[in-house]
Amino acid sequence: MLKAGFISLGCAKNLVDTEVMLGILADNNIHITDNPQDAELLIINTCGFIDSAKEESISTIMQMAEYKQTGKCRGVIVAGCLGQRYQQELLDELPEISAIVGTGAWHRIMEAVNAVLADERVLLIGETDTLYDETMRRITTTPAYSAYVKIAEGCSNCCSYCVIPLVRGKYRSRSIESIVNEVKKLTERGVKEINLIAQDTTSYGRDRYDKPQLTNLLNELVKIEGVFWIRLLYCYPKYFTEELIEFIASEPKICNYIDLPLQHADDEILSAMNRRDTRSDIENLLKKIRTVIPGVAIRTSFIVGFPGETDKHFESLKNFMLEQKFERVGIFTYSQEEDTPAGIMENQVPDSVKEERFHELMSLQCRVSEELNHDMEGKMLTVLIEGHNQDQPSVAFGRSYREAPDVDGCVYVENAIGLLPGELVQAEVVQGFTYDLVAEKK
User: Strands 411-414 and 396-399, how do they pair?
Assistant: First the structure.
């Protein structure tokens, strides 16, 4: 049986593509190995979003290519965003690459495999309008109790700094029926936590049904037996409606956790980013969310060093963070990307200034997070157990509704001997730290 190794880089949306490709490979009797030394084919699903992601992708490709000399590897296949974005350029400049499969051609992965086995180099870049559905086999790589479900592909927002519309195409929603059927299949396998993802989840349905349909989708998903948590990730603020807020508040299966990437808080910078909200819009939305959803945990992200960002703009953002006191914040330095409007803007901010602003906001958020986590002491949480501390078997770690997988901290649970991954337990928070909580099982 042919053995292949598979590495997935980048975001959870990319991971879903990887899992669908793994299903296609398995359907064709290809065994997946986690040992690259044994793999006859090595496949890297790449990210090409910002400079650091591109560098990681190129580095991984070159590392895997070494197994052509030291292992059994007959070819290296590059899938995903980097291949879609740079196509022929990658083939020309990196002879180590045997085949490229773009974001719209993941369903053609076996064409790439067969070409490599026939000693051919191929470039497979299809139209970026492909959608997977529940009929396709998907091998999940997340823990058995948790899974990502991609409800839409692509993006039509066209933020001035972002290449996603170029590499992923316009926004395309899956049908409600397809998503519901996929979630049913996942819960039948024991999945308890469903993490809904898209480049913009709150726009779900606008293209297919002429208006946003996220609330209607959620209304169908909460009816499915076996679902304990439904978590919303990548929520664009423009279509975060009052109806959606009220539904989240009223439905216990939906986590009181909102991932709301805002990117900035100064109106001049928001306009230059081609964002559709003003600071006032955002403040009103946050007030509604926090008023209607008690105990809500809000995660957001900000970009520092966008072209033209002055000290005044930065101070505006910093003050906004101090006022709002978000539970979770990701800070990113602006990456100047070719083929984007922001990439050719004047007044590019020096890297040294970007780094200084990055560290200042990270330090600010550390203080806010520690304060908010201290405030959690004495409160009860339902914790999804994920594993045990190797040095202290009586201490387990997991997540509550306040922590999304992979991006947030965790809850350490004491008196947890015998608890298994996937179990849900009640625990009282006894200590809050900058990123994590310590709790006692009750």
Answer: antiparallel
